[in-house]
Design brief:
Chain lengths: 169, 249
């Protein structure tokens, strides 16, 4: 069943590194900054661990959009992990185009630990984008919500429903 | 090692036919090292086929399995159970692995997921270059370890030719990214493949021999190369009688 626009609640999966990126989520929480409650955060040791298989798996398991949050370029704890993530995102976008999901459903953001506002902004940007694109063609049906309820807000930090990547394997 | 690259997904989808259970078979040797058909790539390919088929409205079961080497019977015997369940196998091995697979499982339909490209080495991360053409008559002792058969665009035996300038060959290579030619606007606005420079193998050979004070190796004129050990005699075969087990009497 295909639904578009405001009639569905997007499911977003965010892969973050455990350094700057995850900390920016904590900062968002500490600052009580609101962002869409549609994001599930999965912590990676470093975004250099980003793997096209994780991204594809997220889509197969029902995500409408996936994004990676990495340290700013030049500031990776593991020197160039975020650059590796960026290259893999570019590659996986092409793959998503080929399989018919569309590369627009995937993106990467580079945030430092203090950028709580930008963390929330990234979530809002992805949420808005997926609302515009509609549900993933793989989802037979999402949770029906009214237009007013779509994109329910929540605080950042510990309420993000985060998982560790180990827990998903 | 054997270097290969993945075929476009569209091409692979096009040869699946009516198969409902597809097994993507990876190979754990050369194509794992060149990141084209190892365990990771097999898992990713299976995922891509599952997603693409669901998007197209005709979902298929796509699973994956990887063996150490698809070019040897012993390893294929280990996955007979997985193969048995499949209607079709997408082999992510080199052409040797695909053929071995097809011979070992004659009642199964096997299609290649890779284009086997050349014998080469990883130049740097993400870049592989051709180094050998398996001509069957190695002449690297004369050329200082640089192969004019594989690395000279014209396979010249007495080089360099007149097309060598400043260490570069007059033949330009079509620039490819992910196997696809990069197109640029040419004269008259027509789109044409971008090209890149190729090193002159004989220039490299000369410099290396000079460095080792062995230029004497190439001062003489080489006789025409004996190509009968190469492809000229059809498919090749090696027989080692010291390794063949005789039938028990």
């Amino acid at each position: 069943m295909q639904r578009t626009g405001e009639c569905f609640e997007p499911q977003l999966t965010a892969f973050t590194c455990s350094y700057c990126a995850y900390m920016s989520g904590d900062t968002a929480g500490a600052m009580r900054i609101q962002y869409p409650a549609t994001t599930k955060v999965i912590k990676l040791p470093c975004t250099g661990k980003t793997d096209a298989r994780y991204i594809m798996s997220a889509f197969e398991d029902g995500a409408d959009g996936v994004y990676i949050i990495a340290c700013p370029i030049g500031n990776c704890h593991h020197v160039r992990g975020n650059e590796r993530a960026r290259a893999r995102v570019v590659h996986t976008k092409k793959l998503l185009d080929q399989v018919g999901l569309g590369g627009e459903r995937l993106d990467i953001f580079f945030l430092s630990a203090g950028m709580g506002e930008s963390f929330a902004q990234a979530a809002k940007e992805m949420n808005d984008r997926i609302m515009r694109l509609g549900p993933s063609p793989l989802r037979m049906g999402g949770k029906e919500v009214g237009a007013g309820e779509a994109g329910e807000q929540k605080n950042g930090g510990d309420e993000t429903g985060e998982q560790s990547v180990e827990a998903t394997q | 090692m054997i270097v290969a690259e993945q075929k476009p997904l569209e091409e692979i989808k096009g040869v699946l036919g009516d198969a409902e259970n597809v097994l993507v078979a990876g190979c754990g040797t050369c194509v794992t090292v060149c990141l084209a058909g190892g365990e990771k790539e097999a898992q990713l390919m299976a995922s891509a086929l599952r997603i693409a088929s669901r998007v197209d409205g005709t979902p298929i079961e796509a699973t994956d399995v990887t063996v150490q080497r698809q070019c040897e019977w012993e390893y294929l015997e280990m996955i007979e159970a997985e193969v048995e369940k499949a209607d079709l196998i997408v082999s992510l091995a080199c052409g040797i692995g695909v053929q071995t697979f097809a011979r070992h499982f004659p009642d199964k339909w096997v299609v290649p997921g890779l284009n086997t490209t050349f014998l080469g080495q990883p130049e740097e991360q993400g870049i592989w270059t051709e180094q050998c053409q398996a001509c069957g008559n190695c002449m690297l002792a004369m050329t200082g370890g640089i192969c004019p058969v594989a690395r000279c665009s014209k396979q010249v035996q007495n080089g360099p030719c007149g097309g060598s300038e400043h260490g570069l060959c007059e033949v330009k290579r079509i620039r490819r990214v992910d196997g696809v030619p990069v197109m640029v606007k040419g004269r008259g606005g027509r789109m044409m493949p971008a090209t890149e420079d190729v090193e002159c193998a004989w220039h490299l050979i000369h410099d290396r021999l000079k460095e080792h004070n062995r230029l004497d190796l190439i001062t003489g004129v080489q006789e025409p190369k004996d190509w009968t050990t190469s492809r000229d005699g059809g498919p090749r075969r090696i027989v080692r009688e010291d390794l063949i087990l005789m039938d028990e009497e």
